[in-house]
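Objective 1b. Sequence-to-structure analysis of Mobile element transfer.
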Amino acid sequence: MAQQDGLEAPPNLPEHRTTTMEKGPFCMAHCSCGWRGPARRARSQARTDAEKHATD
């Protein structure tokens, strides 16, 4: 079963809403703009990828 963690975008970038999704043993960050992060085994690293994308 896939799980999602929503990460709020900073106020100055409302178009970037990121989430993390699990697929098997991997977790990936996704953004509303179409960006996708690499598959990670650690949820914390996928969240970090999403945070970096939202602030870049």
